[in-house]
Amino acid sequence: MSSLTDIIFLLLIFFMLTSSLVKIDIPLPKSDSKTVAPSDLAVMIRADESVTVNGKPSSWITLEQDVATNMRYSSNKDNTVISIIAENGVTYDKLHEVLKIAAGLKVKAILATQPKT
């Protein structure tokens, strides 16, 4: 039983370390949702329509290729989740573009929000 506890503890440490690798320094939309979902890949869209994949600059032309490349090297290939981090002011067209890429690659996509205060 203690070995199971060790494994769970190591997984907890792993997720705590990997979740802090992507720095979110933009204002996010507000939501009442309390759901916390793990994500394997972060796509950040700024109001000026620049885009990054896991903190690395990308372009709208190569976004699908960059996401697919990052998925290929993911440890969770079968259940990859893309977290869409969209700054306030990003158009729905750009969000829709990322959602289409996720649907085309057959992965789940979630929208990152901040809690309402």
Describe this structure in words.
This protein has 117 residues and is of the alpha/beta class. It has one domain. Helices cover 35% and strands 21% of the residues. The chain is built from three helices and seven strands, in the order H-E-E-E-E-H-E-H-E-E. The chain has helices at residues 2-19, 63-72, 92-104, and strands spanning 30-31, 41-45, 51-53, 56-58, 81-86, 108-111, 114-115. The chain has a five-stranded mixed beta sheet with strand order 4-3-2-5-6, covered by helices on one side.
Write a concise keyword list for the protein shown above.
alpha/beta; 5-stranded mixed β-sheet; two-stranded parallel ribbon; 3 helices; 21% strand; globular
Order of helices and strands: HEEEEHEHEE
What is the structural class?
alpha/beta
Portion of residues in beta strands equals 15-25%
The low-confidence parts are: none
**Major sheet: order of its strands?**
4-3-2-5-6
Number of domains as seen in the coordinates: 1
Distance between the termini: 42 Å
Determine the number of helices (DSSP H or I, runs of at least 4 residues). 3
Radius of gyration (Å): 15 Å
The biggest sheet, with number of strands, parallel, antiparallel or mixed sense and barrel status, is: 5 strands, mixed
Give the overall shape, derived from the CA principal axes: globular
Mean pLDDT, to the nearest integer, reads 80
Q: Which percent range fits the helix content?
A: 25-40%
**Oligomeric grouping of the chains:** single chain
Write down how many β-strands occur, each being a DSSP E stretch of 2 or more residues: 7
